[in-house]
Fold YbaK/EbsC family protein.
Amino acid sequence: MSSVERVRAALAAAGLNAEIEEFDASTRTSADAAAAIGCEVAQIAKSLVFRAKESGKAVIVIASGTNRVDEKKVTALIGEKIGKADADFVRAETGFAIGGVAPVGHTGPVVLLIDADLMAFSEIWAAAGAPNAVFRLTPQQLSAMTGGSIADVKQSA
């Protein structure tokens, strides 16, 4: 099963009838995705993967496309320090390549946090398993489907 098909199956299992849109152009960055979709960059729910330093767990922060994640805030939220995850770790722990990490359909257990800023939008867009695939959903659907904790994770200006 391809990564996109795994996301489609996870969405269906969650009862979300979301259409996955695939673009000719890459939607790897928030700006690229927003341009392809025709939405605000802040409506892009980007998946950032970190590695918990003590437990080795994958920590995914679903952040608004305009925000930078404050690693100290994430550390405080999960109770252990985090570090950057390399491409091999991301693929091994989530089943996705960097640029296409979806909020659902992971191949292993992950700790998932949702940027509170995403809750301000009526609809958001998330990666669907490939660098050119996205799907639309509401922040409430994202929260319900992932069980992720909604938190303030952005760096202060």
